[in-house]
Each structure stands twice: as structure tokens, then as C-alpha cells.
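The instructor's notes for this session suggest beginning with a concrete chain rather than abstract definitions. Hand out the sequence below and ask the class to guess, before any prediction is shown, which regions might be ordered.
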Amino acid sequence: MRLPLFLLAVLLPLTAAAQQTAAPAPVAYVLTVDSADLSGWAVEMRIPDAPETMRLVMAAHPEYDDAFRRFVRDFTAESRGGAAEVVREDSAVWRVRSPGGEVTVRYRVGVPPGEEGFRGAWVPFLTPTGGLTGGPHAFMYVLGREQAPARVELRLPPGWDVATALPRDGSARRFAAPDVATLLDSPVLIGNLRRWRFEEGGVPHHVAYWPLPDAVPFDTAALVEALHGIVREGREMFRGLPYGEYFFLMVDGAYGGLEHASSTTLGAPSTELAGDWSEFLLSAAHEYFHVWNLMRLRPANWGGLTHLPPARTRELWWSEGVTMYYADLLLRRAGLVQTSRLEALAADLERYLDSPAITAVSPEEAGWISEAGGAAGDLGDHYLQGELAGTVLDLVIRDSTGGARTLDDVMRAMLAAHPPGRGYTGGDIERTAGQVCGCDLSAFFTRHIRGAQPLDFAPAMRRLGLAPRVRMQPVVDAQGRPQADLRVWPVESPGGNPPRLIVADPRSAWARAGLRTGDLVASINGTAVDSRRAFFTAARALRVGDRVRVEAVRDGQPVTAEFVMEGYEERKLAFEDLPSVTPQQRAARARWLAAAP
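After discussion, reveal the predicted structure:
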């Protein structure tokens, strides 16, 4: 319906005024670190147009919800219009009642004691020379005002530097975020930092490194060039970069990494960087590839801003496992990997075929099951399963299209069809891959993605003129002595409890002794186990023939397991030429080995 011009002249200003009134005012945060008290940080939060009743919440990260709400204390609120009442409604929810108007909230977040030299790169910490803060571990938000912009001021010890993807707001310690999601997705590395910079496609990239006081020297120029190579290959694959600036936030004495839309935190032990970089670079490439596959291309109903328990998804085999596939591929395309692609695939297949869970848990189900859920051997590994499924899909697509298309085309098509805010399902992956391939992939997805039928690599490798050959062999050390069966894994437990056990192989000595996934390990041979490090120290001291006594807790009840440590066998796999290899197979093999797109 068209309106008369005079009505438009009246209504348009009113509409603009209404929109201007509806826009939430910026929330101002001040985060203070006092060098005299490094037990945590103080946060002041000023809400200029607070309603009479509002709820402040701490967000839960979709992957690493370490429940930092446990460490909030000294929560107070005051209003210009009078007194403010505070009630903690839930573990992550504080209700504030006041006359309305401007309300100032103050609270302190304590930093739990971490294990020296063994900290997840995403875990906040403070030391006399710096730390990691920001994100959901520092900033609360007003429930229902997720679109409110934020202004952040950092008050830090003199001389401390700051590195974060938050846009600067007029000074080196003032920042701005257009909404809460951006604020909470931007961790802040602070302290005595070392910094480098490079550009790719006209976009600035920053590398910030927090070193331990006794950090080992390493080749920083070569490391920054390697990160540049990863970025360059990502840009080449996706034909552009989806951000205006990017930060690699590297932490000495830590492990692992965590992706963000415009940054990543990475564990970067200087002792490791002074030697073999392979694990660090694989982690860096993995977290960086998440810029596209997870931060922009997201599973339906996964992620997003919430203080509720994180949602689960059956598509982690794609967002995590296929990202593992591309982490290796980016490194190869950048010339940063020395081992051949066949050697790497053989090693992955050995782990895959030696895992009983692959016949019980599909890739979709492996991503759904919680890390400590299920019985021994029933957990699966969506990282490994997804990486190998991506390998097979790529080989099928290459073969069906005569090498004209690859899994790269599927990834780009998925990203185009499912931009941020529009999640995808497993059916979307199957449909898009089939369209790129020009073939029917329904049987593959039914059997090997939704079902737990193990992947058969013989047909896939036949396309390259190769056949896999498997044999069993004892696991021995450098002197040829049988290695102790350590096919278990500890996971940190919240609340200061002993580590939880992951018993992924029911054939292991630990499983046959009656231990199960989820058991809390209290001691090994009388030595207390109060951390992952303590478990590793005790377990790695065991030798074949030793008597082992494990004290554990299961469902609140004590459990004792006794056994004699044994050796074990593992599968070894190699690829051999088929009896008659065609020129077409050799050409396809050469292209695949070169990681050509």
C-alpha cells in the first residue's frame, strides 16, 4: 500500500525517533588487575538505562563451560535513584532490583589455582608478568539486552601490554564491542608481551606471545612466517578473509587452543617452539580454520549466547573432525609438513582401526556423547572419525568429477548456503556433498556417518592405485622392550576432585581390571592422584610386570582395581601399489599427495 507524501513526511521522522529510542545504550565496563592481589580481577559494570528489575548472567561457553560463575564474589549494586537489592537466583543469574535509571554493579572474579606448566590455553590466569582475562570469564551481561554495545576500560599494572580482537576505543586500554556476543568472544591477553605483525590480503594479523620468566629462545621470525603461511592458504581456499583484523594470542606453559571469530588462544610452550613445532602448528591451523568452519559455518542449534547448559550437536564430526583434515591440508599447502600424506594417513588409520568404539559409535553419535559419558570403549572420537570421513569424501569427489572438484568445493558451498545465523544439519552436508560430487552419497552417510559401520579405505585408495595392508605388532620402546599398557586418559574434574578416567579400549589392562570411564582416580599404588599431571607421573612410571593397585570413586562409592601391568599389540598399516596401476591412478595419486585443491 502506498501512503500520501504528507503522511510519509510525518511518519518517517517518528519512525527514526522510535528506532533511536529502542537502541540500547552502551554498557560501560572497567576491569581492574591489581598487582598487589593477583587472585583475580575486579569488574565494574555501569548500565545507564537499567530497568527496575534486571537479571545479570555469566555466559556458558558451548565447548568449555568451566563454570567460572563459581568464582564470582562480592557482588553489589547501587543506583542513582536509591538502593539496589541483589538476589542470586541461580548459579549463573543475579537479579537486581532498583528504582531504575543508571545502575552500577561491582563484582570480583577469582582465578582458580592452575597446574604450573599444564594449563589449557583458553583458561584465564594471572601472574606477576601477565595473564589471560576477558570474555565469559570476566564480563556479565543483562539478560534480554544481548544487542547492547559495550565500552571496556582496562586498568592494569604499569607497563603491561594488551592484545585482543576488541576494537580500540581511543586509547591503548579502552575498547568497544558492538554487542555482547562480540564482547564475550574476544579474550584479552595482558602483561609483558612480545608482539609481531603481518598482513595478508591487506588485512592486519597480530601475533602476541606471553612468555614464562624462564622462556627458552626460539626462532620468532620463522614462527610468524609459518602462521602467515597458514593464513595465506586459508585465504586462498576461501578466496578472501571474513574479518577486518586477527589476533594469534599465544601462551607459554599451556596446551591446546580455542577458536574465536577474530582471534585464537594457543598454548605455545617455548620449550616446544625451540624444537619440534609440528604439534603447535597443527593446533594453530586447526583453530584458525575454525574461523570459517564453526565460527561462521555452525551446526543448527549449536553455540550462540546463553547462560544455560551448552547445547549438543551431532555435527561435530564435520565442524571438528573435518577441521582436523583441513589443518593438515593447510600446513601441507603452506609447505610446513615434512612427512608424506600417506604416512600421516597410515598413522591415523592405525589409531582408527585399533579403536573398538568405531564399531559401536557413529561419527554423529561420537560428537553427541559427552566426554565422560557411556561405558568403556563406547565414546568414539569425532575428531579422528570426522577427519577420515573427510578424506574418503574428498577421494570420492575427486574420482567422480575427474579431479575437477574436491572437498574444498563442498566447504565453500556449505559456507555460502549457511551464513552466520543459519545453521546446518547432517542432511545439509550430505545434500551439498552430493551436489558437488554429482553422485549419490546416501549410502555412505547412512552407513558411515549416521551409522557405525567402519570406513573401508580399500575402495577409496584403489582410486589412487593403492591398497592398505595391516599387520599386528607388539608395542616396544627404543631398546625393544615391551611397553606398559597405558591405554587410558585422565580428564580434569571440577571442584578440586581427582581426575576422571577415560577408558577408551575395553581390551586394556585397566578396563579388564574393572575400571570404567568416569571413575575418579584417587591413587595409584598408594600415591595420591589429585591432577592430570599426577596421574601421568604415576602411570608413566609403571613397567611391564609391575603390580598395580588403583583406588577410585564411582558414583560416590570407593572402587579398588588390582592387576599386573602387561604389554600390548597395535596395528601397523602400510600402503602398497596395486598389481596394475594405470596412468590415471598415478596422476590422481600425485595430485592428492601434493594436497592440490
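Then share the key points. Residues 257 and 283 are 7 Å apart (CA to CA). The chain is about 30% helix and 30% strand.
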